[in-house]
């Protein structure tokens, strides 16, 4: 059985579906603070908050868990700057409880949902895994903290791990069964699509970045491509001794204005835009180099930006 923490969230639910379709038995843990129980329709679901150490340990004592895929975390960069305590308590505290329960129960295999935010301001682009890790926001610090914890647990206790550092997840399940459902919604593509659907203005954060058109440049990756990478990482960590990190990215940067243009073409609607101040903790450019994942995991991306927009638009209009 594979334990998926945060499996009622956006990426976790897509991974849960793909694992079940591949024949795995899964157990989803989620406190439903941002997740949605109705997407946990594959495998088993238990409402647990990782910040409750006793409840977490009880799960490991009850269920035959073979490995863990850890998503559960708050993930809004701007909010982490405004309220760092919330992020340190939840992301670090909950993750530490999980690691302690794994160690106490003898579960020594984990795939961790990390982030390109661990790199901070890029010194080169695309960013390789060897790039210095210097987060510029509390969210990024919490992800890097758990990467360091896993490295120390591997050295001391033999816990095998793969940390997947990905960039901007986008799109929706190709079958139309799952999508992106945040409250409030902070991700660019669904915000633009909702603006197109509701004919409402959408705020764009910053148009004076040091980029070719003044808006942030990001590496967007389809959520189904991300989910497939987790399946490959799980297979590797179960079948070998490993302690490593992989970028999950396309290696292609798209500016906010690029995405706006693509959304307008896909929806055949003109967006109403309001430009605001840039958000604190936002690097101007984040583009990753995923050559290592392609070589060692055999992972390939299948979807381009237009596919991400089209699949998300289809789900929004269902």
Could you name the key traits of this structure?
7-stranded parallel β-sheet, 318 residues, alpha/beta
Structural class: alpha/beta
What's the main sheet like? 7 strands, parallel
The gross shape turns out to be globular
N- to C-terminal separation? 33 Å
Continuous helix count? 10
User: Care to count the β-strands?
Assistant: 14
Can you walk through the features of this model?
The chain is α/β, with parallel strands linked by helices. The chain is 40% helix and 18% strand. The chain is built from ten helices and 14 strands. The chain has a seven-stranded parallel beta sheet with strand order 3-2-1-4-5-6-11, sandwiched between helices. A three-stranded mixed beta sheet has the order 12-9-14. A two-stranded parallel sheet has the order 7-10. The chain is globular, with a radius of gyration of 19 Å. It starts with a strand and ends with a helix. The model has no long low-confidence stretch (mean pLDDT 93).
Helix/strand layout:
Elements: E1 2-5, H1 10-21, E2 26-30, E3 44-47, H2 53-62, E4 67-70, H3 77-82, H4 84-105, E5 109-115, H5 138-157, E6 160-166, E7 168-170, H6 188-198, E8 202-205, E9 217-218, E10 220-222, H7 223-239, E11 243-248, E12 254-255, H8 256-267, E13 273-276, E14 285-286, H9 291-296, H10 305-316
Parallel strand pairs: 1-2, 1-4, 2-3, 4-5, 5-6, 6-11, 7-10, 8-13, 9-14
Antiparallel strand pairs: 9-12
């Amino acid at each position: 059985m594979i334990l998926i923490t945060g499996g009622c969230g956006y990426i976790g639910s897509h991974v849960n579906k793909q694992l079940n379709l591949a024949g795995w038995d899964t157990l989803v843990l989620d406190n439903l603070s941002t997740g949605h129980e109705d997407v946990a329709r594959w495998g088993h679901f238990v409402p647990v908050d990782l910040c409750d150490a006793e409840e977490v340990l009880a799960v490991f004592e009850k269920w035959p868990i073979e490995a863990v895929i850890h998503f559960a975390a708050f993930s809004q960069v701007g909010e982490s700057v405004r309220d760092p305590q919330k992020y340190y308590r939840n992301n670090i505290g909950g993750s530490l409880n999980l690691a302690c329960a794994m160690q106490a129960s003898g579960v020594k295999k984990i795939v961790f949902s990390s982030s390109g935010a661990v790199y901070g301001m890029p010194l080169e682009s695309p960013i390789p895994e060897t790039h210095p890790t210097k987060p510029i926001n509390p969210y990024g610090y919490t992800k890097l903290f758990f990467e360091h914890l896993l490295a120390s647990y591997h050295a001391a206790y033999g816990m095998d791990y793969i940390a997947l550092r990905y960039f901007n997840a986008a799109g929706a399940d190709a079958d139309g069964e799952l999508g992106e459902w945040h409250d409030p919604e902070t991700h660019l593509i669904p915000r633009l699509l909702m603006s197109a659907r509701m004919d409402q203005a959408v705020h764009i954060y910053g148009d004076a970045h040091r980029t070719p058109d003044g808006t942030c440049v990001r590496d967007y990756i389809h959520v189904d491509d991300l989910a497939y990478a987790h399946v490959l990482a799980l297979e590797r960590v179960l079948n070998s001794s490993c302690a490593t990190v992989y970028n999950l990215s396309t290696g292609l940067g798209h500016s906010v204005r690029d995405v706006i243009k693509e959304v307008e073409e896909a929806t055949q609607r003109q967006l109403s835009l309001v430009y605001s101040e840039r958000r604190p903790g936002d690097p101007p450019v984040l583009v990753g180099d995923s050559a290592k994942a392609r070589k060692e995991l055999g992972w390939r991306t299948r979807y381009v930006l237009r596919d991400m927009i089209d699949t998300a638009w289809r789900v929004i209009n269902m």
